Amino acid sequence: MRTGVWLVGARGSVATTSIVGGLALRAGLAGPTGCVTELPDLRGPALPSFADLVFGGHDVATTPLSKRAEALADTGVIPGRLVAALPDELAAVEQELRPAPHGGTQADRVATVVDDLTSFRTRHRLDRLVVVNVSATEPAPRPHPGHADPAALRAALAGPDEVLPPSSLYAYAALLADCPYVDFTPSTGLRLPALAALAEELRLPYAGHDGKTGETLVKSVLAPMFAMRNLAVRSWSGMNLLGGGDGATLADPAANAAKVQSKQRVLGETLGYVPQGNTRIEYVEELGDFKTAWDLITFAGFLGTGMRMEFTWHGCDSALAAPLVLDLARLTAAAHAAGHVGPLADLGFFFKDPLGTPTHSLAEQWARLTDFTQRLHAGLDGGHDHVG
């Protein structure tokens, strides 16, 4: 199944690492470490192979992809040998990157994105095209009457107002171009009633939000442990220090608030209550594409005995996120081929704030993911409509 992967934010660190990784896997220059879909429980014929993936995308930045890859190699995010071995492949992807549309009405910009997507699909004779948002986190938008239903949205976009945030504009264009949409960020994306209704109307699946790569991944393992042992979590506080473009974006208070809200949701929904404490995110330029998270948990056991736990996570977000981007593109393409419509709740394993998923327990999410994928491989899953 020849599958396009259209990356919104295509020159960013996550997208560049995903592209280099996908090209390296296709060329047999690297192994699939970190790619969940290559585990025995998930591997199978329903998923497009890495050799079937074709990359394109949009970005406001203009730095050549090869230069972005070289910069990431210099900081230890990706191996320099891979960048040196893939100059022709990176140049070919460079030809498929388009500038983010600007000017005119939002309807004009949507039309430009739709044209870019349909041209890319036709040019490469793709069976499927999945749009994946890996751009910078945006603040939550102000409510607008156009967010309510597709007809009101179409009318509003033709006017002078900025009705949709960028993530939702791309989501809207993806739907109009018959493309499933995946939001790897905590941005709004398809979380507007008008867009959700349009996805149902056009019979398209979508997934999100906010890839689960570091501190929240650990929370989704530890929080169920406390709940299942009937231990009372009194407080859970975290400090995240990160650099790079994502860190610079999150220095903006509005974007920071959107990210923190996504990171905190796992605790209340897993424990059944919200302990004292919060998560703080601070930009430290020196850290570059790496980040450090430190968490302090206080809890009470039998007879109220007070105890504490601490953990530190130091990792490279791009290297953790990129294989998941490839996983999500493959899984979403397979779900589209099987006729799934609406939010793909069974992909909640990958997200901090998953759509339509009743559990944040990583073990339960894994069970749902493996069952979903095995049904796809067995041809037993002919798709289904989302029931709210």
Automatic annotation (TrEMBL):
<dbReference type="GO" id="GO:0006021">
    <property type="term" value="P:inositol biosynthetic process"/>
</dbReference>
<dbReference type="Pfam" id="PF07994">
    <property type="entry name" value="NAD_binding_5"/>
</dbReference>
<dbReference type="InterPro" id="IPR036291">
    <property type="entry name" value="NAD(P)-bd_dom_sf"/>
</dbReference>
<keyword id="KW-0413">Isomerase</keyword>
<dbReference type="Pfam" id="PF01658">
    <property type="entry name" value="Inos-1-P_synth"/>
</dbReference>
<dbReference type="GO" id="GO:0004512">
    <property type="term" value="F:inositol-3-phosphate synthase activity"/>
</dbReference>
<dbReference type="InterPro" id="IPR013021">
    <property type="entry name" value="Myo-inos-1-P_Synthase_GAPDH"/>
</dbReference>
<feature type="domain" description="Myo-inositol-1-phosphate synthase GAPDH-like">
    <location>
        <begin position="214"/>
        <end position="318"/>
    </location>
</feature>
<comment type="similarity">
    <text>Belongs to the myo-inositol 1-phosphate synthase family.</text>
</comment>
<dbReference type="InterPro" id="IPR002587">
    <property type="entry name" value="Myo-inos-1-P_Synthase"/>
</dbReference>
<dbReference type="GO" id="GO:0008654">
    <property type="term" value="P:phospholipid biosynthetic process"/>
</dbReference>
<protein>
    <submittedName>
        <fullName>Inositol-3-phosphate synthase</fullName>
        <ecNumber>5.5.1.4</ecNumber>
    </submittedName>
</protein>
